[in-house]
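Section 5.1 Outputs to date
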Amino acid sequence: MQRDFKLHVNGQVHAVATDEDRPLLDVLREDLGLTGTKYGCGEGECGACTVLIDRSAVRSCVTAVGSVGDKEIKTIEGLAHNGELHPAQRAFIEKQGLQCGNCVPGQILSAVALLDRKKNPSRKEIIEAMEGNICRCCNYANILASIEHAVKSQEHLAGGSNANR
């Protein structure tokens, strides 16, 4: 049975009429045209569908739209600010963290969630946080280098501070 939902996505409110059990991934891609969020496994295991819900990384393929409520959803399309790429997006470009691109939106959003929680994570903490994101191309070395570069970029933007939240 369809219900009306108001989804807060990338700073805008979108009215959607859909079944409350429908995956958020499908609503984002099919109803809102936000195709940056990718379908991977459909089981929440690969991380390709990762979005941020209230700044936490969430697998949108296994998240029912009815469970989102008034929470803020951020997709890869909403990550740039005032035309400027997020440091993680820039780092993935600069350090070649993308190959085929299928996993990249989920990788970047998982990295952003980590960097929101901890400004200067160790290599081990990065690896642990990214463990659930699978790259079919096995580009893990460049993904790790990209995230480490994003950490340094954030430190530079913050005036050299490496304090954790």
